[in-house]
Amino acid sequence: MKDPLWVRSGLIFLTVVFFVVFIFLPLVLVFAEAFKKGWEVYLAAWTEDAALKAIELTLITTGIAVPLNALFGIAAAWLITKFSFRGKTFLVSLLDLPFAVSPVIAGLIFVLLLGSRTPLGSWLGTLGIKVIYSTPGIILATIFVTFPFVVRELIPLMQAQGREEEEAALTLGARGGQMFWRVTLPNIKWGLLYGMVLCNARALGEFGAVSVVSGHIRGETNTIPLHVEILYSEYNFTASFAVASILVFLALITLVVKSLLEHQFAKQERGDSF
Amino acid sequence: MSIEVKNLTKTFGTYRAVNDLSLHVGSGELMALLGPSGCGKTTLLRIIAGLETPDSGEVFLAGENTTGLAIREKKVGFVFQHYALFRRMTVFENVAFGLRVLRGKDKPSRQDIDDRVNHLLAMVQMDWAAKRLPSQLSGGQRQRVALARALATNPRVLLLDEPFSALDAKVRLELRRWLRKLHDEIHITTLFVTHDQEEALELADRIVVINKGVIEQQGTPEAVYDNPANAFVHNFLGNVNVFHRRGQSGNEVGFVRPHEVGLSRDRVKESDLEGFIQDVRIRGPQVAVELKCAGYDLPIEAEVARESFKALGVVPGDRVFVSLDALKTYSTEDYSI
Question: CB distance A169–B152 less than 8 Å?
């Protein structure tokens, strides 16, 4: 079956226009704007203290949020797929909450819960722990917003694989830990990595929730996206786009890793067709 | 090593899967748990293996009470219906798994593991596939690997959960004979679950017929087939013609197996029924004959050897005389399926 020429060329034209206007032009503009005043200014925007601090904070946040969400994701997917209990459907729908609520609301929840004027926040304050307008709050907000990625990836995978291999491992004399490391983890490895890459991408770029809990203290509680926004609102366009290009680079790396993993994942799925 | 099950009960919600069931499997015996799906036979097997926890009752393996032990301490070999091979491991690593997870003084040397795995793979005729992945094998080959894996750790007993039901008919028959032969060589106490009466009759030393969580009858295949204890067993073991009627003691149900129905051209006895042949179908070396008899609403099925049917020289529409001497009746008070 073949569609008429005008339909095919029309569709191709639309796709190309869409790609150019919404993806290619913005990318080019980011770099054009960033390099407008030459290499020196571009590098200066990167190496300025506040920028370096923002990069550091973003990397710390992501470095903590992604592994923790991998752990939570495995635990939650394990619980949901290998056991049956009352309230399971409720729990499953609860897992999607971070996707369903606006990130700003998610940030506000933490301010209302842990802000310095709330009972919990002031109690933590007496212990010398500051959560809101500080790094712990940013990490918490990022974990909340990026939680569903890993678990959503693992649940269908583990559901399809069932419990029999784990049961076989146990009857063959494996302890719980041996069963997990030798049977469960190798079976979910690629799905887990894929979920972590998606989680990582979102954690790097998260703006809304982090913006609410950070307090925008320059050189202290600014992540890369927040720093970009501040520079922009100060009409420092070149520096703003220069820092934004860091996020673009990170996004491109993520895309490459993601497609490599997808390739592996598809290969494995084919091998699994028992 | 024997298996002893005492007063086992297990309920799922309001459904009683196993009901105060006791069972003894002698050392070296090959026993079949036979019953319709949902009768509790798989649950019973999983409780013995430790994959399910009973509500009450006890399990003894080789005289030791294993009810509360961790699964790995029960030392049973378990073969799953859908093989449950480790998909990321080669055939060799699958079989070696039970040896590799051993710790401390039980931990075998690398050489011991190699020798044991190679010996087992040769025994199940899968040594050529040691480096393959499970996904590269056929169903029958996978199940043989699963069996080698279950035997690797020298389990006290071997438990098989519908081991052949996922295979096609020819492979199933082949593996059945092969398992019988294997058991005659290694004499490990074996309990297998099946809903296929033919499989149970051919393979087992002894058959336990289970229905609704309780044992209906147990005995040798001959005893169970020839002398069913009740209507359920008679109906479940093999094909039957069913007759419902009113007897002296209330409603009765009668069974006669198709091969027990006698056919002749002339009346032999007073009790013979007059019937007409409706349909004739060839079933391998046998011929299935459908008969319409006066006074019986449903057609009666007879099964005779092809040669005898030829000798009879009848075609559909012909009149024959039917003998139902083998009919066995039961009161329906305690009969339900």
Answer: no
